[in-house]
Design goal:
Order of helices and strands: EEEHEHEHEEH
Number of helices: 4
CATH superfamily: Aldolase class I
Number of strands: 7
Number of domains: 1
Radius of gyration: 15 Å
CATH topology: TIM Barrel
Largest sheet: 7 strands, mixed
Shape: globular
Structural class: alpha/beta
Bound molecules: iron/sulfur cluster
């Protein structure tokens, strides 16, 4: 059974995708971007180990009537891609009405073949680059990061971005 290393969960975020969202922060990131917004989540140790089922149960406890979607952030959730796949499948089954966003420091091109991609709606890709920092961008910190419509992108074979 896979386990995820989880740093924490936020019940009602409005900055990690549209609407009120439950946000799962994973522990561990392979990068050290200068200006990282969550440097305490870079070490691969220090979080709480949870099975995908236990994580789903915790997400359920945090969902409210206002919840519009679930976001996985970090750290880098794709560092734990196999366990994340199991968790995302469970979330999809339990909450088919929610959209699922995943933040990663990898580019879409680097991770496009991961099975978990087929179960998410939006991938916010690429590392935070201080030189391209822009506080006016929606749901991301630097201009290199893209809000990728994963389903449309996988269908068409061309990267399709949300214009938010
Ligand atoms: S990819 Fe994100 S979490 Fe990882 S070091 Fe860069 S800004 Fe921080």
């Amino acid at each position: 059974m896979s386990v995820l290393n989880i740093a924490g969960i936020v019940k009602e975020s409005v900055v990690d995708g549209p609407g009120f969202r439950v946000v799962v922060f994973t522990q561990g990131c392979p990068r050290h971007c200068p200006g990282c917004h969550n440097p305490e989540l870079i070490p691969r140790t220090g979080g709480r180990e949870m099975t995908p089922r236990a994580l789903l149960d915790t997400i359920k406890e945090n969902v409210t009537p206002l919840t519009r979607g679930i976001t996985f952030s970090g750290g880098d959730p794709l560092l734990q891609a196999d366990a994340l796949l199991e968790a995302v499948k469970l979330v999809r089954e339990e909450f088919p009405q929610f959209d699922i966003w995943v933040y990663t420091g990898y580019t879409f091109e680097e991770v496009k073949d991961l099975p978990v991609l087929r179960y998410i709606d939006v991938l916010v890709d690429g590392p935070f680059l201080e030189a391209q920092k822009d506080m006016n961008l929606a749901f991301r910190g630097s201009a290199n990061q893209r809000l990728i419509d994963v389903k449309q992108t996988l269908k068409s074979g061309r990267v399709s971005c949300l214009s938010l």
